[in-house]
Specification:
By secondary structure, the chain is mostly helical. The protein has helices at 12-17, 22-32, 52-65, 70-77, 80-84, 115-134, 140-159, 209-225, 227-236, 240-253, 306-329, 334-337, 344-365, 400-403, 411-420, 450-458, 463-476, 501-515, 532-536, and strands at 86-90, 102-105, 113-114, 165-166, 184-186, 193-195, 202-204, 304-305, 367-370, 373-376, 379-380, 386-387, 428-430, 436-438, 447-448, 486-488, 491-496. A hairpin with a 5-residue loop joins strand 13 and strand 14 (436-438).
């Protein structure tokens, strides 16, 4: 089957250019549509990281509880990040400033670490960690691994708060990419602006609001599961509190439409890969936070992306609770032990202020009248201009309940959802396969992203709809038994990114959400929901080990 790797995956024209005859591709897709999902997990010796907890859940749920092909696809996808993307994982061995784990994971076929992707790749494992804690058998190895991701993300923010992706200098890493980009910063005070891409730790420097929010989200998720341990680890990590300060200062800076702290230009074939005059189109302050690029890595039309700001409101609220916890742990001795963690009350206050400002901005500017209905806008500029569309990448309008911003039954969300999943959304496609889904400018017409089907299922309260979407997702995976970035609306045989870990793990997490739900479990043909805590009680920690 035709497959695309970076950067070829980015445009449909490049897909067609590989010479696949559409008629032949359709015949291949028909053959594949028998849902022949094969076991494609790497052998244990070939996995980049082994967690016996994740293996246990994947094998019991995928191999015993769920029927094929859903069970096989779950077993392939849920552990995919651990199986294939861990380039580095160092476990904490000391106390104090040196007590930090460090984990570097790549996206899959792009050998770099995106802040957004890495959070989404590993956050499903927080669910399993939580079950192990509830079962009284906390997985210490998975704990270290996950806190290592937070540390690496925090350290990356301190390298450059405007970058979205970072390079690994070790074996199998890829450095020196995108050096032709023109994006400037001061490396030292008074040194004047220099091209930031001279720093080979950067892989790409597109400012995307949700990248910074992803750091907050993973940290808060671990704090929810292990509040005491997370608090102590975050205080002891010399990167964490300074990174939180940098995130909050950057969000504050990017509330101003007059700010020129960030500029970006690239010589590119596609206009969505660069910014007009290095800054994009004008905007007017709204209280929300600007972003120059979307979660898809494409340039915005208008600077205030509503799904991104909705995510910001939610994650800043969670961050405030985390900072309250750190303040409670911080005492008079902490100034000497953790000198990098001073100023916590000020950070807590700033987090509250930013959340209130953003929520006010969304309320005042974030909706629009479209096709006779009041709906959430996708982007606005503060002057009264807005655009209605949705992109498959999360955060999206479709994902607002998944983000925690609204409930699935919120009337404004339901009106928005109805139009997102229709031809009112210019990036919604439905072809001869009979599958309708959202794509986006990143790959263009007529590519549907399985991620949008996953989000549609996650935000539905209709068992039949979820069951249909699970069947459709299985069908999209038939070319290589994994979830892809996108597929052609008329054939599964034309797809992008055969190795896309975020989509794989996201699918695995959806399946766990469905099978453990008191109602939705029947969508996976189960007679009763799975008790994840009871399942984890049958797990042994002996096999968890790092194998790279």
């Amino acid at each position: 089957f035709p497959q695309l790797s970076w950067p070829e995956h980015k445009r449909l024209g490049m897909m067609i250019a590989i010479g696949v005859d559409l008629f032949l591709a359709t015949l291949l897709a028909v053959a594949a549509n028998g849902c022949d999902i094969r076991d494609v997990r790497p052998a244990p010796k070939n996995r980049t990281f082994n967690s016996s907890l994740v293996n246990h859940v994947a094998e019991v749920v995928g191999g015993t509880l769920l029927a094929k092909p859903l069970g096989t696809l779950f077993n392939n996808c849920m552990p995919n990040t651990l199986d294939t993307t861990v380039l580095h994982a160092a476990v904490a061995t000391a106390h104090g400033a040196a007590s930090t784990s460090d984990t570097f994971i790549i996206t899959g076929d792009i050998h770099a670490m995106w802040l957004r992707d890495s959070m989404n790749q590993v956050r499903p494992y927080v669910r399993l960690l939580n079950a192990s804690v509830a079962a009284g058998t906390q997985d210490r190895i998975l704990t270290d691994f996950l806190f290592g991701v937070v540390h690496r993300q925090a350290a990356s923010v301190l390298v450059d708060a405007y970058a979205n992706a970072f390079a690994w200098w070790g074996p199998r890493g890829q450095t020196g990419s995108n050096q032709g980009d023109q994006t400037f910063k001061e490396f030292e005070a008074g040194g004047g602006p220099m091209n930031a891409m001279q720093d080979l730790r950067l892989f790409e420097r597109k400012f995307e609001l949700d990248s910074l929010l992803s750091v907050l989200k993973l940290a808060s998720s671990l704090h929810d599961v292990l509040p005491q341990e997370a608090g102590h680890r975050f205080l002891a990590d010399a990167s964490f509190v300074p990174a939180i300060n940098t995130v909050l200062q950057t969000l504050s800076e990017m509330q101003s439409c007059s700010s020129r702290a960030y500029t970006f230009q690239r010589s590119a074939q596609e206009p969505t890969d660069t910014l007009s005059h290095g800054v994009g189109f004008p905007c007017k302050d709204t209280g929300m936070v600007r972003t120059h690029f979307r979660p898809s890595d494409d340039a915005v039309i208008y600077d205030f992306n509503i799904p991104g700001n909705a995510m910001a409101a939610v994650e800043l609220g969670r961050l405030t609770l985390l900072l309250e916890s750190l303040c409670a742990l911080y005492d008079s001795r902490s100034d000497l032990q953790f000198p990098w963690a001073t100023g916590l009350p000020q950070l807590e206050a700033l987090s509250r202020t930013l959340e209130a400002s953003i929520r006010g901005g969304i309320s005042a500017h974030g909706t629009m009248q479209f096709n006779g209905q009041r709906v959430f806008a996708y982007e606005v500029d503060g002057f009264g201009n807005s655009v209605f569309m949705d992109d498959a990448n999360v955060p999206s309008l479709l994902s607002l309940p998944l983000l925690g911003y609204v409930s699935r039954r919120d009337p404004l969300y339901l009106a928005t959802r109805q139009l997102v999943l229709s031809d009112s959304n210019p990036w919604y496609f439905k072809g001869s396969l009979g599958i309708g889904g959202v794509g986006g400018p990143h790959l263009g017409v007529p590519m549907i992203w399985p991620m949008s089907l996953i989000v549609q299922a996650w935000t539905s309260d209709d068992v039949d709809e979820v069951a249909m979407l699970l069947r459709q997702l299985i069908s999209t995976a038939t070319p290589n038994s994994l979830i892809h970035e996108s597929f052609h609306k008329d054939t599964f045989a034309i797809f992008s990114r055969p190795w896309f870990a975020w989509a794989n793990t996201f699918f695995g997490d959806l399946v766990l959400q469905v099978v453990t739900d008191p109602v939705m479990h029947s969508a996976a043909n189960l007679s009763k929901p799975v008790d994840l805590v009871a399942l984890v009680q049958g797990w042994s920690v002996d096999q968890s080990k790092l194998v790279i």
